[in-house]
């Protein structure tokens, strides 16, 4: 396993397991248990995913001590605001059946995220949260935010993969010490990711799959990755990315796959923003 040291001094595994869209309780619980048995020590969930209880149940049932698992959850804008966010964090603690969280992120850059951040800062000072960060904050919004808060985000979790690399954002965050965490690192299978000839040709050099090449590419850019799957064999495949290093030539070739466009949730598109804002009355507590 490779690790990254966050800007507050704690370390985080660079490879984690995501549970987005694993909605069934039993399937989510089983998937997290499988991931922990395979060797994953970082689990990423969110209030919006509505599976925190299943994640907590898996952690309770696992033989892996809680202290060895880096646990992340995210607060939805419905619960932004100083008082509401504090209550929401305690709700997540209860559902996850834990007395502390390793990382809590503000899930979207909308609503009263400044009030929400003040709540996270307070919980961080109290030791209830070990690190705090944001998600889906792109360069303009990130810069505005980071210059008006007391605590610089430890992590910004955004969509990133070989087809949407986000180098501008990475360069922006590096100046403030915020770690780059990639959701959707396998491009959600789009762009023919799993059969793409460039990934396949490079993978053949190392005896690796398209998925392993795509993950290794991001890891070598010093980014955290959280691939999601419900299949144990693919968990093993995704975990097996620390025994090879892509050459500079192969990294340069993969850089040419950049499209400049996200797969989902372009946060500058008013239609997508409206979709998020229409969820404002949803009960994700």
Description of the molecule:
It holds the Pfam family Aldo_ket_red. Keywords: NADP, Oxidoreductase. This is Aldo/keto reductase. One of its GO terms (molecular function) is oxidoreductase activity, acting on the CH-OH group of donors, NAD or NADP as acceptor. A hairpin with a 5-residue loop joins strand 1 and strand 2. The longest helix has 15 residues. An eight-stranded parallel beta sheet has the order 3-4-5-6-7-8-9-10. It has a two-stranded antiparallel sheet with strand order 1-2. It is globular. The mean pLDDT is 94. Helix 1 crosses helix 2. The chain has eleven helices and ten strands. The protein has a single domain, classed as NADP-dependent oxidoreductase domain (TIM Barrel, Alpha-Beta Barrel). The protein is of the alpha/beta class. 40% of the residues lie in helices and 13% in strands.
Judged by helices, strands and strand pairing, the structural class is alpha/beta
Number of helices: 11
Mean pLDDT: 94
Biggest sheet architecture: 8 strands, parallel
Content of β-strand: 5-15%
For the record, the CATH class is: Alpha Beta
Low-confidence sequence ranges: none
Counted beta strands: 10
Tell me, what's the shape?
Answer: globular
Helix/strand layout:
Elements: E1 3-5, E2 11-13, E3 17-18, H1 25-38, E4 42-44, H2 52-61, E5 70-75, H3 82-96, E6 103-106, H4 113-125, E7 132-135, H5 139-146, E8 155-159, H6 167-174, E9 179-183, H7 197-206, H8 210-220, E10 224-225, H9 232-239, H10 248-255, H11 270-277
Parallel strand pairs: 3-4, 4-5, 5-6, 6-7, 7-8, 8-9, 9-10
Antiparallel strand pairs: 1-2
Helix pairs in contact: 1-2, 1-9, 2-3, 3-4, 7-8
InterPro entries: AKR (IPR020471), Aldo/ket_reductase_CS (IPR018170), NAD(P)_OxRdtase_dom_sf (IPR036812), NADP_OxRdtase_dom (IPR023210)
Pfam family, one: Aldo_ket_red
Keywords: NADP, Oxidoreductase
